[in-house]
Structures
1.
Amino acid sequence: MSTPKPKKKFSRRKFIVRSTVGVGVAIGATYFTRPLWRRSIAGFVNSAELPYNGSTDEPRLWFEVTADNEVILNSPKVEMGQGTFTGLAQIAADELEVDIQQIKVIHAPTASGNIDGTSTGGSTSISSLWQPLRELAATMREMLKIEASKQLGTDAAALTVKNGVVAHNGQTLTYGEIVKNVTEWEIPETPPLKDVSTYKFVGKPVPRVDLKDKVIGAPMFGMDASLPDMLYGAVVRSERIGATFVGADTSSAEKMPGVVKVVKEPDFVGVVATSQMAAEQAKQAIKAEWATERNWQSEDIEAMIKVGQGDPVTIQKTGRAKRILDNEEEVITAEFTSPIGAHAQMEPNGAVAHVENDNATIIMSTQVVNLTRKEVADRLGLAPEDVNIIPTYLGGGFGRRLHTPNAVQAAVLSKAVGKPVKCFFNRREEFQNDTFRPPTHHVLRGVLDKQGKIKAIEHNLSSGDVMFGSPMFPGIAEPVLGADVGAWRGGMIQYEAIPNFRTVSWRVKLPFATSWWRSLGLLANTFAIESFMDELALKAGKDPVQFRLEHIQEDEAGHRLREVIKAAADKAGWKDEVVNGRAMGFAASTDARTPCAQVAEVSIENGEIKVHKVTCAIDPGIAVNPDQVRAQCEGSIIMGQSAAMYERMFVKDGQLLPTIYGPYRMALMRDAPKEIDVVILENADAPGAVGEPPLGPIGAAIANAVFRLTGERLRSLPLTIA
Amino acid sequence: MTISFNINGQPTSLDVDGDTPLLWVVRDMLDLKGTKFGCGKAACGACTLHVDGKAIRSCSYAVKYAEGKNITTIEGLSNGDQLHPVQQAWMEEIVPQCGYCQPGFMMATAALLSEIPNPTDEDINNNIVNVCRCATYYRMRKAIHRAADIQSQNAKNQPS
Amino acid sequence: MKKAHRAYLAFSLLLGLLVFGFSTPRSHPPEPKLPERNKSTAAELTPEQAFDLMMEVLTHKRCVNCHPSDDYPRQGEDSHIHNFGVQRGPDNHGVAALQCQTCHQSENNNHAGVPGAPEWSLAPRKMAWQGLTRVEIARSMLNPDNNGGRTLEETVHHLTEHELVLWAWEPGVDANGTPREKPPVPKAEYIKAVKTWAAGGAPIPEE
């Protein structure tokens, strides 16, 4: 038997949060466009802890106790590989006093009411739910104890609880037995939380809760969803940059076998058929007409992404870096670039939609359940409550599923035929209609003092948009911030003991969609800054690790950064020399307050860069699951290596290419380092970001190693040696 | 046309257009969803399954070729509740992240181990060229070696 | 399509090229023009002219891509190393769990753009043509040490009847759905040229 669903109720906490945001935005619109304010906001955003945006005061939205004493955890965060389900289960189990095996984590459908108002992204799931989820679980435990005390006729304080069994004087009740007889729940004040050191699951390398399913092929991803009587849809998508839909000749498609209906909408044309194959073939028979204004080429894009073009915003300023650098003589200047990157996640985007009787059900992989629901509701003219988004496991996220027009298209097709419709991108469409990682250009300037320390440093970065233009992001924020928070992620100088430093972000709007790609600007910005730090260290005649340590300030962030730098160097046995054809390269970054340092061991084999080993030290604060922290580091390092060494989209005759794995070269088994050594430090008293920070250092670490092998400073991603 | 084959030990007959990719037959007609669609171009390996014990990328394999053959998908890799050594190793090393590409990798690895019971790192590099975007390659390599150990241990324990 | 039809079509195409300077639609790869020296019908070819015509085909990427001089098949119109570092393997059919047949079947798959033909595989190392001159290819082809002990008659049979060889004229489409470029000589002309060359004693010119 399940716990009764609570009625919607007014949440005071939510009101407070929302009105604060509202007031903030109003003030922001008036004052924050001033440079000093913009810098303050940028600084705040850079080190802010993003709160969870959803209900956290109703335990029954989150937990459902079943008759066989299992606790279902309705997760508003989605599982896309980052291990969030496992971390949430560990946190909940410890406060609920159940064994982790008793917890089953599922994706909360929006109809459950447990909705994340923002997204699963930004490496915030565990950090933002750490406090609320513990409080919810502890409250749920107390609620169960209160009900047990009524049923056992004793005081709740006298009860003991273990593994979901409440005991008193030899009498026992399981949680499952307790809920059977509950008619009305009493919700107590939030009880005190346990001491973190007493937790049995938090802090332990518990195997992933989805492990067994994922090894036997059982989990349901968006593309695995099906409904009775389901038909298959396909949507014609543009292959050219900036194309707008004009119309389509669908006459031959309409006559094809298996075609149920051709659906013409003002903004797209699609087809519904009885099988995946029939839909795909009919789509190819539709002759769509598109209007394009320009035949874009890679050179056009490269010419746009240049520091000095577009709108500059100074996001960081201490001392008088610009004045010093404009006047000194021994200024070192270097430029860096990064290319357009594709998400290339393995599961294409799509949805299974069923629209009937003014209700819509959408089953899909999405990182933005709330936005998806809103967009489907708006298009169908329904209230959001009439749309139920049922999230599934994601076949990779990486930011690709923060835009979900695919849900709207599937819903429109379903409505047109009155039956469930499954509609997915094919791989070519996935590559051509991606929301890409924007290309970047960086200009670094620095000058050393007589002691070989940095006197002044400046980072100018130019990037396409990441957050701006996203429906997730209120339009008002653009003029307030001026600079795209996503684009400059990782772009600030983290060595704050330098007396004069400055970062300027230049915004460029590109003709194709650019957006969030795991770690956003971190990959490119760190590549530029940390390659430059290496140059400055060599110029100063100092060891690059020591050189970095000399420029770190004495505060908490500085302490944590210093410790990961030392730990990575120690563990790797850091030596700034070439041994047996192998060299080490060093780099460090701080992202979302998590510092990470890496040492890459590299050689050149048959004219290609070979990465043998990466040592990584990371300090995410409390590591809820050390094994999954390691897994995220390993994956981030190889994904970052892949982006830094191989990946590049280009633009030819108005098309984004390539459109398939292989030509879009990514790291394979043979390319990945055989050894990855991860050291976890926990110099903060709460869990922080894990899933993205380790993507930062790898590009520069590899490039810095290559410099030691070849004497060539690689300034462009993907790294290629002459 | 009517096509008959064994899938995961079950004899199956279907009326289907012979040019339909085996992947869609397995997923949509037989409702075995463990085999994944990644690219439809035999480029990523997410759809890898076994036909007569050999690794096949089923998105590019017309179902007509399957006539009279034995097909194994990830759902049929284990022996009942007894996981295949590759699956056991994948559990021990906690390989999957998002998990989408993993069935293809495990099927490719199982095919590799049946041909080369103790693969070297170079064998692994040359044979396992599927794509994993979570980039779980580091653990996969460890798991492949571990699976080879489990398999040879099982072989030793089997009465001859 | 019947063979006679194909021959007729090929002949018409050739005629079109010669007489009208035939231009093909832009969406298809251009049909390369035949060299000047072949301005005669195959029936009238000397064995030397037949050699030239045959070599137009044998040095084309549809042939050479699978006759590499190293252990990596080539692919595409630019003959790049096969994606994913696919390898020759011990018997030219790929490595243990990454056989050619993992992806390539006995026919082209035009949904996927994956080419296929019976016995899809690499030519043995001894039959490597990549980087060889026409003369070197011809010598190698006739050398029993390299060609698997074939007689001239058997070599002609391989060149004119083997389905994998003849696939070059039905190469299907690539992953983008673009038709693959065919060899510059129509199939019937090529077959005739091979036979004319062989019948004339398989002369190999001095170059």
2.
Amino acid sequence: MLYRTVGQFKTSYAADHALFPVRQDAWLLGVILVFAFVIFPFTASEFAFKALLIPVLIYSLAALGLNILTGYAGQLSLGTGAFMGVGAYACYKLISIFPELNPIAAIFLSGFFSAAIGVAFGLPSLRIKGFYLAIATLAAQFFLVWLFEKWAWLYNYNSSGAIQVPTVSSFGVPVFGPNALSIVQYYVVLCIVTVITIAAINITRGRIGRIWKAVRDMDIAAELVGINLMKAKLSAFAVSSYIVGVAGALFVFLWRGAAEPVVFDIPLSFRVLFIAIIGGLGSILGNFLGAILIVALPVLLGTVPAALGLPISSAMVEHLNTMIIGALIIMFLIVEPHGLARFWEIIREKLIMWPFPH
Amino acid sequence: MEFVNSVFVKPFQDMAGAPDFLLQVLWEGLVAGVLYALIALGFVLIYKSSRIFNFAQGIMVVFAALTLVTLYEKGVPALLALPLTLAVMFALAVAIERVVLRPLVNQPDIILFMATIGITMFLIGFGETVFGGENKAMITEALHIPTGSYTFEPFGGLVLIEQKDLTAVVGAVVLVCCLLLFLHRSRLGRAIRALGDDHQAALSVGISLSTIWVLVWFIAGVIALATGIVWGARAGVSFALEVIAYKALPVLMLGGLESVSGAIVGGIAIGVLEKLFEIYWGQPLLGGNTETWFAFVLALIVLLFRPQGLFGERIIERV
């Protein structure tokens, strides 16, 4: 009923492929953005910012980066965590070498470093395919994390071996570090995620996105119709690693406040991969749905049983969380391999058809 | 010049200078390599028969070893705990086939791969809930694994060979021989290989897909138990053991995903080379702990020249 499309005529090919072919989609997005930009910041508690809102946005961004590589260009990567690390360490070095640099500019710049590293480790994809490539990306994962640990220049030779976020201000307002307010950090993260998501939507539905999809579906066929495989694959690695690197910088500088190399180890890569799978490979919306699920699940497990009078220990919460995520992945792959995003598609179609079954 | 010397000359001088130490390093590498080969073998078996890249092999090693140790701690005699653990691994194989694999028949490879990651996560959470997260000692004495050591004195030096490592190597060789005999001489083994060649052709001559899958996952479980026992005897049993599964991945890349002999050669090569690199190049020049990535980088370099691994089947692509 709400999704009645009667009277919305498309008179040109371009209109048919517009960003919002159905007007209600635009309204719905508008409502979500109002919630994100106005209602959440003024109602959320400190805990909600730190445990839900900020991590959901950051994980969504990381999953978006991975999804461009795996979901759109078809190159499976298990090295996301390490590329996030490259972004975080690049940002750390940038603000320690150029203390005058605006922190938001530093975050956007740090993405270019991870993009460069991503392209370097993406080069084997020109010869190696499928599972072999997935294992090759693990080389990046293990090598880079080792490098973060051993190359003392990266963490300014401090004794702990970890990076500590200093207080850095943008136009007089602290953005990084312990003095920054959560609401400021939330707005910074939200704006960056919004800008990059809009860019990603437009890249993936444009010419480059179509080239990636052709390569994903069958790379030899794509080559035969004149697509330059090297450009297509390396551009996917570059764009993906850029977004993942920015997500990594946000992860450390606007959320965790400090990071040891082990933070970027393989469990982080897997968490991002799970968000992308559960959300839906080859979908932008899915990353956000998947991140909400994965971030909210441990919080729910930690609070709901306690509220119901069933106190479970925090170790138990973690074990149950791992177990449920495993079961959820299997369930999603069996029931709906296209993830949560596909569920939304189905609901939307039903709403448009309603009250008719077909 | 200093640099060239420290990379290309000094390590070899060190090797020649202390041949007994070199022998010791080679032996340690060989033992580690045999264990990598065992895990890789579990991967290869499942990949050959079902084209599933089984990421859960590492956690199956931990799961089997923990089941065995926990049963023993609960008072079950060791020689009874062993068959009971095998029964648990069989039940696990049946459950995985029934719940996960059967609904996913004919899905793309990547979906099945992700499903095995899901199995891994589930087993980690389940295992930690049931067994607890702490490190346990493997029951070496109760299983009558000798724990002494032999010493040799070649070149006037000293080489120490632990009996449990020797047992591990001998056990692995016996296991691999049995497996190869089973795959090549028995009816069921032939069925497994037939399924690996062509699913539809195998089905059309009456080979049951679900039976073979259960069987293959059970064999992978047996290999996992063997690996868990020998590795647990060296380093204790805990979920940290799962990381050794990642070590089997470069072995697979090096040897080729379909090749049993590739898994063995690749495993031993990687075990020995990463030990040599760590001792003679990694620790003096790079600050140590290079074992975490050396195998991957080596495999990556080999793959750039042979994309299907050293022994893999030639990749032929058609449009």
